[in-house]
C-alpha cells in the first residue's frame, strides 16, 4: 500500500493547526492524487471540513469510514462523528452516543487510545452542556 508523502501530510497537519483549513484540504487532495485515499487522509479531511463548517460533506466521509475504515480508525471516526453531529444538528443524542462509544473503544486500546479518550470526554461534556445537563457535563 502506498503511504502518503510525509511532507504533504505534515503540510496538511500544519495548515490545520494554524486554522487554514482550505490550504489543508489542498494538501490532502495532493497527497490523495499521488498515493490514493487512505483512512488517515480521510480523517484529516473530515477535520478540515469541520473547520470550514462543511458538515454535510464531513458526515458523508464519516459514514464511509464507519462502514469501511476498520477497527484501526474506529475510535477516531466516532470522535469525529460526535463532533460533526454536535455542531450540525440540534439533536444531540446520537452525538453523545458516538462520544461515549469512542471513550470505551479508546480506553480498550490502553495508552495508545489515551488522547482520543480524553478528546471524547471533552466532546461528551460539550454535548451534556448543550443539553443543559450541567451535573453530567
Amino acid at each position: 500500500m502506498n503511504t502518503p508523502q510525509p511532507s504533504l501530510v505534515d503540510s496538511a497537519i500544519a495548515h490545520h493547526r494554524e486554522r487554514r483549513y482550505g490550504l489543508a484540504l489542498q494538501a490532502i487532495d495532493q497527497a490523495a492524487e499521488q498515493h490514493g485515499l487512505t483512512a488517515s487522509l480521510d480523517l484529516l479531511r473530515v477535520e478540515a471540513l469541520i473547520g470550514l463548517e462543511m458538515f454535510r460533506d464531513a458526515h458523508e466521509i464519516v459514514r464511509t469510514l464507519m462502514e469501511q475504515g476498520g477497527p484501526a480508525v474506529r475510535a477516531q471516526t466516532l470522535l469525529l462523528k460526535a463532533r460533526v453531529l454536535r455542531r450540525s444538528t440540534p439533536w444531540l443524542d446520537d452525538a453523545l452516543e458516538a462520544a461515549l462509544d469512542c471513550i470505551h473503544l479508546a480506553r480498550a486500546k490502553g495508552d495508545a487510545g489515551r488522547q482520543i479518550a480524553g478528546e471524547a470526554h471533552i466532546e461528551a461534556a460539550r454535548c451534556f452542556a448543550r443539553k443543559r445537563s450541567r451535573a453530567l457535563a
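The longest helix spans residues 114-130. The chain has a mean pLDDT of 86.
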